[in-house]
Amino acid sequence: MxxxxxxxxxxxxxxxxxxxxxxxxxxxxEAEKAPKTRVARAKKLAVRPANQKVQSQVRRLQEQRSDxxxxxxxxxxxxxxxxxxxxxxxxxxxxxxxxxxxxxxVAQLGDKVQPEDQVLVKGSVIKLKWPDRLPRIxxxxxxxxxxxxxxxxxxxxxxxxxxxxxxxxRWVAIGRLDINxxxxxxxxxxxxxxxxxxxxxxxxxxxxxxxxxxxxxxxEMRLLTSEGVMLEDGLxxxxxxxxxxxxxxxxxYNVVLKEGRNREVRRIFEHFxxxxxxxxxxxxxxxxxxxRLKRGQFYELNAAEVASVMKWADLPxxxxxxxxx
Length: 325
Prior knowledge:
By secondary structure, the protein is α+β, with helices and mostly antiparallel strands. The chain has two domains: 61 residues, RNA-binding S4 domain (Structural Genomics Hypothetical 15.5 Kd Protein In mrcA-pckA Intergenic Region, Chain A), CATH 3.10.290.10; 167 residues, Pseudouridine synthase, CATH 3.30.2350. The protein is 25% helix and 22% strand. Strands 7, 8, 9, 10, 13, 14, 15, 16 and 17 form a nine-stranded mixed β-sheet that branches. α1 crosses α2. It is elongated, with a radius of gyration of 27 Å.
């Protein structure tokens, strides 16, 4: 008892809490409370292997020697893009920078290459892929907190940690999503196909489900689909926008645009004083986010599905056997 009284003398606050039966916490006035900053984080999951049937088919095709003797020369930037090195515009920049050589000579824009030519980028040999087989396409359900980058000094979770290996090529992400945006991300081994989706000149539609704190009026939605609104990097306009209801102060909208500028959807709503609390890409061009696909999972298109996407993109198909690799 004596020890208890001495303890209370040393810590009067402790004595008050004991007497009342519950701790008394000092409440900070609302104006003094620091705003809560929400940082998206993704759990590190086990890397999911590709479908076994697809893997065995790819290995079988890799072992086959293709007859490339009948292939016509193609422009260097097109061949590099088709080999998954990047978009055609990026390849043109590489060539202009003098980073590419063909058979020991510095390449120039307009140069054409054939299967027997040796192509190097910054001294490294590039194994060109020719249109003798279909590219690979993966649909990935990106989670909030993941980044669309292979290297990150902060050690954040990368979507590339979730994907199967792309054999001799590499995966090219078609249109990036920021760390706080989730939903459909398309990846392919064809830089040319990636360019057909993402280049502004093709005006491919992107569809989003957007949850905002607040509500847009009918006049504001009509403005977005007609004149558009001026952002710091130019005029922004949407093709379609529809209210999808919601609960309380949170409202959902379906938004379709034909461009993909940095944080464009978020900035459009911020223009009207509204904050986007969740952003999900649900469609890109002819491809929608599959209902069966869960967050952090991928689905690889089969040969028939890939051929359908290639036809939509108005890109040439390989021979009628539609080899896949």
